[in-house]
UniProtKB/TrEMBL annotation:
This is ABC transporter ATP-binding protein. Coiled coil: none annotated. Keywords: ATP-binding, Nucleotide-binding, Transport. The keyword ATP-binding applies. Residues 5-256 form the ABC transporter domain. SMART domains: AAA (SM00382). Pfam families: ABC_tran (PF00005), oligo_HPY (PF08352).
Length: 322
């Protein structure tokens, strides 16, 4: 199957001031540092990792909300980074985002109807009447009453606001939706409703999702494939079964050892990691995980591990795996 999205060697390095006048800083924060992955039509690719590992920066790079330092973001084989402004604008209609905080992402001065219609207005779609009809249809699609169009964001709960954000993201008939921690700010009981809604909409509109989360239980429920990020790099990627049942990278093993198994009688060893995630300003040499890795050997300190493919769809970067 052909990929809908293919990201190649994507990097985002933010320059850091050295506080020396007239001298250009050579230091940078390597927020995303050479990431490769594909997303196939109709699937959900989960991106997991601790906070600060570059997940959100990557989401914004894919949607071109920020410009990368280098690399490619190919949507249907066309590189967004090389597109002229007009083509990019048209392409971005097909790639929408849902953000974490449903409270911050809706302008409190606008009515719900105006908020949902905004992408249609920006992209010059339809007239006032057709937009009103589309807003009502979208509200019903996300399980809200169409009369809510006349109300303001403060009148709604977190879960309802996230539904409004989802309606807004769907307004332009996207193909790829990037969900950046879409339920992390919600109560657990509401999380399940929003997740179920996202799944239902995926089927109904044949959507492809990139689903970013630090919550492995949510990811387990939602994703077909999973990419594990550490310090701006993907250290392991594979199908849901490969990552949950047979994690190969020591970091993935540690992450997943912290969540309970579906079968409580299955033996599981908890791996506790030493220390904190190091600063992306001065990431460790070699394998950037070596300072915390319980299995590190000498070569890990000096040489960046290559990507290997132990199984068909499974890729890992670790010197111990070949
Ligand atoms: Fe651990 Fe070395 Fe593998 Fe990195 S390359 S994960 S330090 S064993
Ligand atoms: Mg984030």
């Amino acid at each position: 199957m052909e990929a809908l999205l293919e990201v190649k060697d994507l990097k985002k390095h933010f320059p850091v001031s050295n506080h020396i006048p007239f001298k250009k800083s050579t230091q940078s924060v390597k927020a995303v540092d050479g990431v490769n992955f594909k997303v196939y039509p109709g699937e959900t690719l989960g991106i997991v990792g601790e906070s600060g590992c570059g997940k959100s920066t990557m989401a914004r790079l894919v949607n071109q909300l920020i410009k990368p330092t280098s690399g490619e973001v190919n949507f249907k084989k066309k590189n967004l980074i090389e597109m002229d402004a007009r083509t990019l604008r048209a392409t971005r209609k097909k790639i929408q985002m849902i953000f974490q905080d449903p409270y911050a992402s809706l302008d409190p001065r606008l009515k719900i109807g105006e908020l949902i219609a905004e992408p249609l207005v920006i992209h010059n779609v339809g007239n006032k009447e057709s937009r009103r009809e589309r807003v009502e249809e979208l509200l019903e699609t996300v399980g809200l009453n169409k009369r809510y169009a006349a109300r303001y964001p403060h009148e709604f709960s977190g879960g309802q606001r996230q539904r409004i954000n989802i309606a807004r993201a769907l307004a332009l008939h996207p193909e790829l939706v990037i969900c950046d921690e879409p339920v992390s700010a919600l109560d657990v009981s509401v999380q399940a409703q929003v997740i179920n809604l996202l799944k239902k909409l995926q089927k109904e509109f044949n959507l492809t999702y990139i689903f970013i989360s630090h919550d492995l239980n949510v990811v387990r429920y939602m994703c077909d494939r999973i990419a594990v990020m550490y310090l701006g790099k993907i250290v392991e990627i594979g199908t849901y079964e490969e990552i949950y049942s047979n994690p190969r990278h020591p970091y993935t093993k540690a992450l997943f050892s912290a969540i309970p198994k579906e079968n409580p009688f299955e033996e599981k060893e908890r791996i506790i990691l030493k220390g904190q995630v190091p600063s992306p300003l001065n990431p460790p040499s070699g394998c950037s995980f070596h300072e915390r890795c319980p299995f590190a050997v000498d070569i890990c300190k000096t040489t960046v591990p290559k990507v290997v493919t132990p199984e068909n769809t499974h890729q890992v970067s670790c010197h111990l795996i070949n």
